[in-house]
Design brief:
With 151 residues, the protein is mainly alpha-helical. It has one domain: Up-down Bundle (Four Helix Bundle (Hemerythrin (Met), subunit A)), CATH 1.20.120. Helices cover 87% and strands 0% of the residues. It is elongated. The two termini are 31 Å apart.
Length: 151
């Protein structure tokens, strides 16, 4: 039984590492897209593919394994787990809503001129949004590793 728990824990950590690593690379690619209007649409398509095929599946695995471990071993009112669950729920909603905006951004990057103000405003907002998501994932990983008692 202990081996099963540690196998689930290993998958949980692996999923978190892959997801967080993907998020960090997203920021690099998005900053590059903002600086390279000619190739912006292609760069953003790569970001979307990384998100669809690496980030999202890894977070699904990590969240599923985390919930299994929580229900298996931890008291349901453990403060760091409750905080992590709240942040993860918010991140899930943000991540799900980011997809349609990303598609809109890619479409606008293909169709509009590079110096379009609407595109620049959307790029700035989505870059800040993605930085917020990445920072929040960092906080969840911190809580996962340190397990601080918050209340």
């Amino acid at each position: 039984m202990v081996e099963l728990y540690f196998s689930i824990k290993w998958l949980h950590i692996l999923g978190a590492c892959i997801g967080f690593g993907s998020n960090v690379t997203h920021l690099f690619w998005i900053f590059s897209a903002n600086r390279d209007p000619v190739n912006r649409a292609n760069i953003l398509r790569v970001v979307k593919k990384i998100d669809d095929f690496m980030s999202v599946p890894s977070y699904v695995v990590s969240i599923s394994c985390g919930l299994a471990m929580w229900l298996w071993q931890w008291p349901t009112n453990t403060s760091w787990i409750v905080a992590s669950l709240v942040i993860t729920t918010i991140l899930t909603i943000m991540g799900i809503s980011y997809g349609p905006f990303m598609k809109k951004w890619i479409r606008m990057a293909k169709e509009r001129p590079a110096d379009d103000q609407g595109l620049a405003v959307l790029a700035r907002r989505l870059t800040i949004w993605w930085a917020g998501i990445t920072g929040s994932v960092f906080v969840v990983i911190y809580l996962m590793v340190r397990k601080p008692m918050l209340w």
